[in-house]
Amino acid sequence: MLTRGHYYKMGKKSLGVVILINLVLFFGKFLAGIYSRSQALIADSVHTASDALTTLVVLAGFKYASTPADEHHPYGHGRAESVAAKLVSLVLIFIGLKIAYDSLMMVILQDFDRPHQIALWMVIFSIFIKEAQFRYALKYARKIKSTSLLADAWHHRSDAMSSVVALAGISAARLGYEILDPIAGFVVGVIVIRIGVRIFRLAFDELLDGSLPVHTMKRIEKLAYITEGVRRVTDLKTRKLGIDIFVDMKIEVDKEMTVEESHLITAKVRRDILKNMPNTRDVLIHVEPFEGPSDKTEQ
User: Fold this and answer.
1) Which among 33, 40, 140, 251 has most CB atoms closer than 10 A?
2) Can you give the residue ranges of every domain in the chain?
3) Is pTM beyond 0.85 here?
């Protein structure tokens, strides 16, 4: 079974690969955009540059979040990952607004040209690379249950989507509809803003200790009910700090049980949850006497 340290190590490795690819892709797209005088491709290159920047932020958050708990941070430093994801979202929103504004001004001022063919080849190449990056980052994000890595993955997907829009705009401009190139740049900006808002909401929810998804809560309940002697599960609460999951819950047992018997039941419930729920850092269980009809059959 992989440890918490292994999860963070995998995440940092995937981020390092992504940063290198993004830097190379940014310079290629930016130079091609300048040479071909394509606003759509320049906007797309700026989006790629933001990919590299935000991935660096995520990497920094990962490194800090992976440091052990200390006296002042007994729950660890996992919250740093949520903060990193929030910073990523703010950078995305700002860059999206800048791209949209610059493109709109080009349309208003009628300042556009027919892009060179090199812009087409570069944006096609970018689409394949960014989609591959998205799938690569998404695989690791799902594996280690990382919000900031998931945010970074969707940033790559938004870059791939913006490249598709840029391709459409550049193609139309080369056919004589030059105004569609900056219009495509404007659409790219809107896409970036939308992804940024989505990531912001996700990170904000984590910072406010939002609960895990309903299906995850149901799974935790079922794991508790597997243990013989658990008559009812109540007041189940969950929260996520980085890749770490914390669970608080109450279980009801027969009131005739001894303290030792109820302790053994609690220990087994805790052990089963830690074993079967990846990334669960701790499970706090409070035992109470069972006073009513069991709802165990409904689980």
Assistant:
1) 40
2) 4-207, 214-298
3) no
